[in-house]
Specification:
alpha/beta; Rossmann fold; five-stranded parallel sheet; about 50% helix; about 15% strand; globular
Length: about 230
């Protein structure tokens, strides 16, 4: 269980719901550390592809996730001393990460790493299982969501994921997101699901500034008054 002195804020939700932008803004407003756990899964996927590992080789992938030198800061992802921030944000690695994320040994290794981030103090962590598996005792849990059409539209224009750069067709992006949603929600280990004590924030048709203001308000109220 976390404490009021060292709060952990869990932000969960599907792709395209706004987790990254909202979490970064929230962390900045609160002066907390921000961690994107999706980047960790993409980094493992990138290493697996780079090393020629099969994406269903659980023992090898588990060792990779547990032993690789992997660092994250507010802007950069580094693997074995190499900056892979841009390399992991492509459609190919997104698809590979969805497969890697289904591997229980990978999830076990990365969840252990993710829990270690809380030792440094206040933390905003985003992902798909933060409030249910990584930090079930998080001080505040937010579940961001949006309509499938809006999430696809956002992702299609998102250069951070290689979509906008590639001029991805909206229907192709929507199909890819639907497949990722299905994979995340049906995987055996830590499926995507809203925690019972999470606050749902639907971002459909709402600008980023308004969503951030809403989330900051929820977090501050919860930290002041408790669940």
């Amino acid at each position: 269980m976390t404490t009021a002195r060292d709060p952990v804020i869990a932000i969960d939700g599907p792709s395209g719901a706004g987790k990254g932008s909202v979490s970064r803004a929230l962390a900045q407003a609160l002066g907390y550390r921000y961690v994107d756990t999706g980047a960790m899964y993409r980094a493992v996927a990138w290493m697996a592809v780079h090393n020629g590992l099969a994406l269903d080789d659980e023992p090898a992938l588990g060792r990779l996730a547990a032993e690789a030198e992997l660092t994250l800061d507010q802007q950069t992802v580094t693997v074995e001393g190499h900056d892979v921030t841009a390399a992991i944000r492509t459609a190919e690695i997104d698809a590979a990460a969805a497969r890697v994320a289904r591997v229980p040994a990978v999830r076990d290794a990365l969840v252990s790493r993710q829990r270690g981030f809380a030792a440094a103090g206040g933390l905003v962590m985003e992902g798909r299982d933060i409030g249910t598996a990584v930090f079930p005792g998080a001080d505040v849990k937010i579940y961001l969501d949006a309509s499938a059409d809006e999430r696809a539209s956002r992702r299609a224009s998102d250069t951070a994921h290689g979509m906008g750069r590639d001029g991805a067709d909206l229907s192709d992006v929507a199909h890819a997101l639907a497949a990722r949603d299905q994979s995340d929600r049906t995987r055996q280990s830590s499926p995507l699901v809203m925690a019972d004590d999470a606050v749902l924030v639907d971002t459909t048709g709402i600008g980023l500034d308004a969503v951030v203001a809403r989330v900051i308000s929820i977090v501050r109220e919860r930290l002041e008054t408790g669940p």
